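Same chain as my last thread, 147 residues:
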Amino acid sequence: MRLIIPLLIFSFTLFSCKKEKAKSKTTLLTQAVWHPVTVLGRTSRYHFPDMPVTIEACDLDNVFGFATTGYYSVTDGASTCSDTSPISPESGIWEFAQDETYIMLHVTTPSGTITKDCNIEILDENTLRYTFYDPDIILYYQCTFSH
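reply #2:
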């Protein structure tokens, strides 16, 4: 009899615990704003050495925000950079593609819309890392962000 009561309590506790559901990629992306940590440049998509891309101190406080409505924006933080900065303010529409392995950024510019295909390498509670190709300067970028 002594063992029955603890077993009943253990069984009740075991079966009453709710398992926490894994967060969706949309939730992970949109739950908080992102700040740049590193940007690397690559001349080839596959086998290559990384070349650090200079990030001005004024870029490190930029804010990357993704809304659940599909809108995104990059805004200057407290300090504003020059026009030649690799991370400049922009806005547009975002969406997942290829089974949520890519983020498509449709950037609004004065001359129209440009689409960046960003290959997601890491998307978790603390880190967003993606790679995209810039055909204007023939360079692949690997961008890492944190909250």
